[in-house]
Design goal:
Layout: H1 3-6, H2 23-30, E1 37-38, H3 50-59, H4 72-82, E2 89-92, H5 95-106, E3 112-117, H6 122-130, E4 133-138, H7 146-151, E5 157-163, H8 175-182, E6 190-194, H9 209-212, E7 219-224, E8 237-240, H10 243-252, H11 260-271, H12 273-276, H13 278-296, E9 308-311, H14 320-326, E10 329-330, E11 332-333, E12 343-346, H15 350-365
Parallel strand pairs: 1-10, 3-4, 3-5, 5-6, 6-7
Antiparallel strand pairs: 2-8, 7-8, 9-12, 11-12
Helix pairs in contact: 3-11, 4-11, 5-6, 5-10, 13-15
The structure holds pyridoxal-5'-phosphate (PLP).
Domain Aminotransferase class I/classII large: 37-358
Catalytic activity: L-histidinol phosphate + 2-oxoglutarate = 3-(imidazol-4-yl)-2-oxopropyl phosphate + L-glutamate
Protein name: Histidinol-phosphate aminotransferase
Length: 367
């Protein structure tokens, strides 16, 4: 039976999301018995803080009950945490779900989606799933070119994704650049600021998109518990937008889209953020150390406002990611992002970062 033949025509060539290789998979595939360092998915190298794990454990006895369907209490806590009205918050099964829901709620067959390239690989996927025209705007010097993105807007544009800081380059766009982009923009275009790495960004001129929402009701800001809060495994993210946009998202989401444990963990993560945020400083120090080490080896490494670095080797395409995997270190090969030969490396524990740099030095010297 050729099920592909039965598929909706525009879905036949969808290229599914390829995640960073899980630790168990590398062990199985290569019979690797040593310790494996996964630096491939921009995860937090540390587990959630003790209090969050306790909140998760406390929830287990209630798993016979469905979760709160609209994540009411987590929305209320987020609203207080961020200083906005609860009606402006929507919680999703990861911020990824919200990207998907935006497309489902708003994209017609003749609409266009504008986004930067290379950037988060889910934007082209949702455009493919909706069967609509994707307008990819190339980065300049590894940075989003917001002026070119504005020029790429046509009467058919419905959603613009602005990944800030950008995955996989780690670079950011400034408040001034964002102001210029929004100035005079049609108000029926939804501008989604994907801020998955927001908490790691410390640049003084990083835009405050929640503040901008007051004057631009067509903005939606996406954030997540997956990165700084160490909850990638639970799938919980959120957005801040106009309350009417929140209503539209609720209309297209599944019932109980965010599980009980994720909601409880998210609430505890906010209560104990003071403890978690101490990790931001370590990330910054380690990131600069890894960056300096890679630059020393001749790599081009854009300055990063995140917990990862893009490393472009001096001599072009090679097989460094494979060689690293043979030595138990998983990084992300950048070929699917149009950057053949480059890699994206997440910041791990100090020991993992040291091991990565030491291995890189050995690999480069023996080339
Ligand atoms: C830019 C960007 N947006 C969104 C996501 C999805 O995050 P979540 O785990 O909240 O779905 C990621 C995950 O890596 C990301 O890099």
């Amino acid at each position: 039976m050729d099920f592909k033949k039965l598929m909706r025509p525009h879905l036949k060539n969808v290229r599914p999301y390829v995640p960073g290789k899980p630790i168990e998979e590398l062990r199985r595939e290569r019979n690797f018995t040593g310790e494996i360092a996964k630096l491939a998915s921009n995860e937090n190298p540390y587990p959630p803080v003790r209090e969050v794990i306790d909140a998760i454990t406390a929830e287990l006895g209630q798993l016979n009950r469905y979760p709160n369907s609209g994540s009411y209490y987590l929305c209320a806590d987020l609203a207080e945490f961020l200083g906005v009205e609860p009606g402006r918050i929507f919680v999703g099964n990861g911020s990824n779900e919200i990207i998907d829901l935006l497309a489902r709620a708003f994209i017609n067959p003749t609409d266009e989606i504008v986004y930067p390239f290379p950037s988060f690989i889910v934007y082209p996927i949702v455009a493919q799933l909706m069967g609509v025209k994707a307008v990819e705007v190339p980065l300049v010097d590894y940075r989003l070119d917001l002026a070119a993105m504005k020029t790429a807007i046509t009467p058919r544009t419905k959603i613009v994704f602005i990944c800030n800081p950008n995955n996989p380059t780690g670079t950011y766009v400034t408040k001034d650049e964002v102001d210029r982009f929004l100035d005079g923009l049609r108000s029926d275009i939804i501008v989604a600021f994907d801020e998955a790495y927001y908490e790691f960004a410390d640049a003084a001129d990083f835009p405050d998109t929640i503040e901008l929402l007051k004057s631009h009701p067509n903005i939606i800001t996406l954030r997540t518990f997956s990165k700084i809060h160490s909850l990638s495994g639970l799938r919980v993210g959120y957005s801040i937008s106009h309350p009417d946009l929140v209503t539209c998202l609720h209309m297209v989401r599944q019932p109980f889209n965010v599980n009980r444990i994720a909601q409880a963990a998210g609430r505890a993560a906010l209560r104990h953020f003071d403890k978690t945020k101490e990790r931001i400083g370590e990330n910054r120090a380690q990131l600069e150390k890894v960056r300096a080490g890679l630059v020393d080896l001749g790599f081009e490494v854009p300055p990063s406002q995140t917990n990862f670095l893009l490393a472009v080797p001096p001599e072009g395409p090679g097989n460094l990611t494979e060689e690293l995997m043979n030595r138990g270190i998983i990084v992300r090969d950048m070929s699917p992002f149009g950057l053949a030969g480059a890699m994206r490396v997440s910041i791990g524990t100090p020991a993992e970062n040291e091991r990565f740099l030491k291995t890189m030095r050995e690999l480069i010297r023996t080339r």
